[in-house]
Amino acid sequence: MRHTSLSEMSCPIARSLDRVGEWWSMLILRDALRGVTRFDDFRRSLGVAPNMLTRRLNALVEAGMLERRRYSERPPRDEYIPTARGRDFRPVLLALLAYGNRHFAPEGPNVEIVHSATGIPADPVLVDRRTGLPIDGPDYRTVHHAPKTPLPLPLGEVGARQRSG
Amino acid sequence: MRHTSLSEMSCPIARSLDRVGEWWSMLILRDALRGVTRFDDFRRSLGVAPNMLTRRLNALVEAGMLERRRYSERPPRDEYIPTARGRDFRPVLLALLAYGNRHFAPEGPNVEIVHSATGIPADPVLVDRRTGLPIDGPDYRTVHHAPKTPLPLPLGEVGARQRSG
User: Fold this and answer.
1) Residues whose CB is less than 8 angstroms from the CB of residue A138 and which lie 6 or more positions away in sequence, other chains included
2) Largest CA distance in chain A
3) pLDDT tens per residue, range B77-93
4) Chain B window 115-154: which residues touch A at a Cβ cutoff of 8 Å?
5) Interface test with A, best of B97, B133, B144, B145 (most A CBs within 10 A)
6) For chain A: N or C, fewer Cβ within 10 A?
7) In chain A, which ranges are continuous DSSP H helix?
8) From the centroid of its chain, how far is CA A86?
9) Which residue ranges in chain B fall short of pLDDT 50?
10) What backbone phi and psi angles, to 5 degrees, belong to A74?
11) What is residue B164's predicted lDDT score, i.e. its pLDDT?
């Protein structure tokens, strides 16, 4: 199921979601970024139907996030390698990982990101590379430029928003 | 369409995706975090069918990310307010925003996060709050604990992974 209308939205979140395609696509990218390259290995890891996996792999190749490479001529077999654009998706997955650990791991995290030297678990926070300040804070706000596509859909004020609830 | 099997996976990414539910859920959260609270305003912003919107709002309430509050008895009307758990999802959306701007905004970004004082666009990077170092780098790795749920699905080495492609 594609939500093609999303691609026409000017919101960059909507566009990212549209290109990545489906939950399965994020999990395929997760596996690809840990080194899985072959169809059968993706299938085993995800327990997903072959036709669904084929569709999702094709969509990720079309979106420029995976590159298809033939590794065997007889029988014909391809592998799927993350491109620079695919590797750049890792922060989104790490943010989802941190969120899952904080909110949906009542028995304690199964997967953790730790500082290699000390083994201390990381406490991930999104900051501005230039200032080192959290962008999810009062020092930052969202700016909307004049939309160049037909369906403007702004994110709204991030930093200045009042907390309710 | 629910991927119930995902919820049984021990991977925190899969769990997050399972709870948030669908693309629409992420866009509903985006709108909720910029202050949208009412059904008709979500519907107008997203252009989504009412029955789909009702299902997604109910799922986000069940997941503990939105809270339902009655604001009118006659006629009966509810509004939807982000909980602390819902607000904590903002870094995922900001990571998706940054990704969309970098890769899917050939005409230039429509929405940008800027430093309020200077107006300089932020360059978002995920760091460890304790060390200030990027967790998407060689100083960090992923550790897998003994899974406590039936379907282990590790993320794999993040920091130590070799780049291919």
Assistant:
1) A159, A160, B116
2) 61
3) 999 999 999 999 998 89
4) 115-117, 119-120, 122-133, 135-136, 138-145, 147-149, 151-154
5) B97
6) N
7) 4-7, 12-20, 23-33, 39-46, 50-62, 84-87, 90-103
8) 9
9) 1-4, 7, 149-165
10) -130, 105
11) 38
